[in-house]
Amino acid sequence: RKLERKDVSQYGNGSHLRNPLFQGRDLDRQYNSVAEWKLPEDGLFEVDYVSNARPLKGTEVLSNDLWDRLMVQMINSSCLPQDRILAMRSISHTFSMRSSHMRSIVGYFKDSHQRADIFIVFYLRIVDLHNSKMFMVRFPDQEEVVALQERLGYASFYPFFQPENAKFELDLAIHDQRLCASMWVNLCQKEKYPHNLHDYGYRLPDGTEDPMALGVPRSWGNFDSCPKEGRFRATYMCAPENRTFSARKELAVTYTFLNGIEELKEEEVQWWTGLTEPPEDVLGLLEFFISRYDDVKTPFTKIDGEGGNGVITLSELTEGLDAMGCHKFDKKKGDKADQRTKAQRIDSIFRYLDPGCEGSVSEQEWAVLDQLWKEFDMSIKEFVQFLMLTFGEDLLWAWEALDDDESGELSEEEFLQAVEKIGYFGPAKVVFALLDSSDDGNISFDEFEVLDKYKPLNRRPTVSRPSTLPGMSLPTT
Fold it and tell me: At what angle do helices 175-191 and 245-255 cross, to 10 degrees?
């Protein structure tokens, strides 16, 4: 109240407790507040506690080198995953971390419940939550995201600074979810209303769909005017030129307890896009560019042409890709899985790159490919680091373990099964697509060796070759 911040509790009662259960029964169905409940002498009481405490401005965080050494110790430990989490929890109060560290640690837990536990331990100790999308893209499963929202709180988990491509479905009967619905509509009004809210819908309590013929009501931007029943869903999309950073920061100042957020500048945010957000053909285009150029600005300039006007039309994109010799989207004989024509596939790429629907792609909109490039590059490096931590620095050892039938090559299905078996949590399909340089649906060791250039130069984990691995045997050479 002193800071004039809103009540972001689950039921609007100012409580830090969420989801109270006693003997598996939901106490919220019986009491307005858990404070009204008379504590019994025995039985199992479960609850999520969400603190308002956040790292102070200027809080020192672990160095990347120290963090890497901590991760090596954790991975090399003989403890069970749940015991590793308990160990990390026991020291969690002694340090704060960056978004990049959170991204790293969730990648080492294969089980979704274990990922959630380690995530919740450290989430409120992150000093740069304005860069949270860097680790949120590691959760492609929407159900996993919803589970985290339920435990941490919808308002605490709201993507204040990078809401692009966020999908949500909110129960308006619950205070903090209704609050988030109001925030989404409020933000949309300050950026581009109603265009930024895509695929929206409102399901009434009886299960019928409100047609919303006039769109999402502007009045919902006021919390008190939001309906108190039904479910509201949408996807938020915003073109860079429509982004209003001051409005996003204002929401964060009002609804979070982040210290020093008032002074945050837009250039301090690492803008990010996840590999599961764009259509598959956009990733195909990115793979084409990565194999031929050092950055995404160069192909933009080539397509725009000498002395261009700084924007690309659909016809320019089509002609430019032809001139570059890009055949990724040509119709292949015998391909019954994808019946789309080349023109349709390029059109889907163009529509993704033109979220403002102006009919042209600006250099600012094209920059989303640079964000994808960063994610692509980081994902590959993380995969290589995972292999090094698991098998040692020689990638041949990793290949021998993955190619357990010693056939000399891996199909996509074999690769996905093998990396899942060793506990890798990440965009395995994207890794396979990069390695399959011949586009024949298989990778050989020669293609696998391209990962060698993604090894960290200055900070290499020290791991000796393991004699055995969980769930598989390791061939000898």
Answer: 160
Mean pLDDT for each consecutive 10-residue tract of the chain (477 residues)?
79 92 89 87 94 90 91 88 95 94 90 93 95 92 93 95 96 97 97 94 97 95 96 95 95 91 94 91 90 92 91 96 90 69 94 92 94 92 88 89 91 92 85 81 90 74 44 40
The closest alpha carbon to 15, from 45, 30, 35, belongs to 35
Structure tokens at 19: 């989801």
| Percentages of the chain per state (helix, strand, coil), in multiples of 5 | 45, 10, 45
d(CA 61, CA 126): 9
Say how many C-beta atoms besides its own lie within 10 A of residue 39's C-beta: 8
Residue 348 identity:
S
Question: Can you read off the two tokens belonging to residue 453?
Answer: 């250039």
Instruction: Supply the pTM of this predicted model.
Output: 0.86
Per the CB < 8 A criterion, the answer to whether 434 and 426 are in contact is no
Rounded-to-integer distance, Cα 448 and Cα 396, Å: 9
Chain centre distance of CA 201: 23
Contact in structure between 238 and 271 (CB atoms under 8 Å): no
Q: What three-state secondary structure class fits 87?
A: helix
Beta strands in 258-348 (DSSP E): 311-312
